[in-house]
Amino acid sequence: MTDVVATKNLVETAVSAAMAQVLPAELAGGDPLVRRSEHADFQSNVALALAKQAKRPPREIAQAVADAIDAHAVSATTSGPGFLNLTVPDATLWERIGERVNADRLGIGTPLTGERMVIDYSAPNIAKEMHVGHLRTTIIGDALARILGFLGADVVRQNHLGDWGTQFGMLIQYIDEHPELPWRHQGGDVSTLDALYRAARAQFDADLGFADRARSRVVALQSGDAATLAVWRELVAESELAFQALYDRLGVLLTPADSAGESTYNLFLADVVEELVAAGIVVESDGALCVFFDDITGPDGDRVPLIVRKSDGGFGYAATDLATIRYRIRDLKATRILYVVDARQAMHFRMVFATARRAGWLTDDVHAVHVPFGTVLAADGRPFKTRSGGTVRLSELLDAAVGRARDVISEKAHGLAPDELEHVVQAAGIGAVKYADLSTSRTKDYTFDVDRMVSFTGNTGVYLQYAHVRTRSILAKLPEGAALAAVDTTLPLHPAERALALALDDFADTLADVADTLEPHRLCGYLFALAKAYTDFFESCPVLRAETAAQRGNRVALCRLTGRTLATGLHLLGIEAPQRL
Ligand code: ARG
């Protein structure tokens, strides 16, 4: 597989070569600061950036660089206080199209080869229903897993299921006392378990006798009592079935093989604490073992402890995360660990990372990153809740979006067989939810608005799916063999073709940018801009009725490459790109 060099990289090379001719060596080696521009194909403000150090007016530097640029590769002019405007020859852009349209993976390289990235995402809690709060971690985490993997990283997905804790003692005790209540073999529905869980909690709060029995059950669970463990295992299995059903419906890559719930680390907790004690990192505070940090304080200004072992000798969420990070570094050999978890856990992760650093597990060779995200809001601008104030089940949200997609698509799609229509409706509804989530800047809150998200217009998943379908339907209308014509690099580029070609060329750079910033909305924004560039092209450049066969061939290549780029981009977001709509 050969990577196609992006036009932007060619321009950078040309500017760098010119800089080397006209600037002192210590200044010439830096970033040539080439960006896409409205005034030319690209612009560089490197002359402005270097003027001070070079002790020359920026305009003079810009002119010198422009004069030195290889005019066959790039034509350069200067403007304003010292901008370089850079335009590439038509043939260069056509060559890129010709290379990419037939390339495996669109000619995109694998710059992340050699990196082992552990991605912690989804992580719902056993015996509870997945709710709206799990939507973002699941969808964002999965998109990152796909994109980083596509760029060559060795991705290890980790589903840190909430499968351990005192609440299970309570639930198992309740189940034991109510053998008449069915919860087994619900075929991927945990609503009964969820209800049992809430009933157990209510009785725990109201009935001291039950609370006592529940506590003994916690002890039994923790000390490995066989009967108690057996029920716990069934609870886990039943819940995992339900989660898997939802992952499958969402088109998320997670499988049971990616599950490494909290209980996985039980065996290591004592050892982790011992290691921290031996290293003098923990101190005793009110009977608990804690780590303190000078720069992490609560609202009252007091330092907030990371509780590694509770005063009753039990271990909690923090101890588990310490064992987890040690395992991910020492055993999984991660070079990067991403925790795609709600922004409200920011302080927890700061403390876990700082402790891991003090313990010597987390070194400069490993990047541990909390990838936080904002809240999903209801139309009233408040966190999404049911009318009674409860959490909204994720499956209900999906049903709502699919239902709305069915209305919108049935109106538009004619001539689809019922099976295919249903497939498209699911793809559009689920895709709409995922796209609405991914296209909002990750750290911002957003409003879950079903009508807006399934709209055929605007920055929506359906719009992009539709743009992809339009590229397909044009190709379907071509005479036999015409779809594979070679690109003629001698033809002049229409401005709309030029804009589309430049947009297509930006794909690799966009993916690299998402990998750096961990912000999938940049890919959404890119695909949306690409779809718009395609629409402009389509409106001003006839394809089937092109003037010559060569022109038609070139335009067909633009359609094909746009279609492949949209489909690949959607796939990397975890969104299906149906062939028809
Ligand atoms: N189960 C947790 C929750 O629902 C999320 C776990 C995130 N991952 C982690 N390693 N702490 O809040």
From TrEMBL:
Location in the cell: Cytoplasm
Subunit structure: Monomer.
Protein name in UniProt: Arginine--tRNA ligase
Residue ranges annotated for the Arginyl tRNA synthetase N-terminal domain, each copy included: 9-88
An example Gene Ontology molecular-function term: ATP binding
EC number: 6.1.1.19
CC terms in the record's Gene Ontology section: cytoplasm
GO biological process: arginyl-tRNA aminoacylation
Motif ('HIGH' region): 124-134
